[in-house]
Write a structure and sequence with these properties.
Length: about 90
């Protein structure tokens, strides 16, 4: 069975070090997945940021559905990435 103790022993590292490195890797991976989704919004709407998308919706250049939902997801994604960055910075 894979567990922290076994991995730490095999790598000659402390369990704490293995856990910290694992958590960092997990956070970086999660940020990458979110950022990949955010890139799809940029490409789908050919805009740079969610504020530009919102302006296009407000002036009627884009239909509100599904653009508004994508706008909300985009802003939530940016907040999530910021939160993950904060967690990584706090671990330094």
């Amino acid at each position: 069975m894979l567990n922290v103790k076994t991995v730490a022993e095999r790598l000659a590292k402390s369990e704490t070090e293995v856990l910290e490195q694992s958590l960092r890797s997990y956070l970086v991976r999660e940020m990458g997945l979110i950022e990949a989704e955010l890139l799809r919004y940029r490409e789908r709407y050919t805009v740079v940021d969610p504020q530009e998308l919102r302006r296009l919706i407000e002036v009627g250049a884009l239909p509100a559905h599904p653009a508004w939902e994508d706008y909300l997801e985009w802003t939530n994604g940016l907040e999530a990435v910021d939160d993950l960055h904060d967690l990584l910075r706090s671990a330094e």
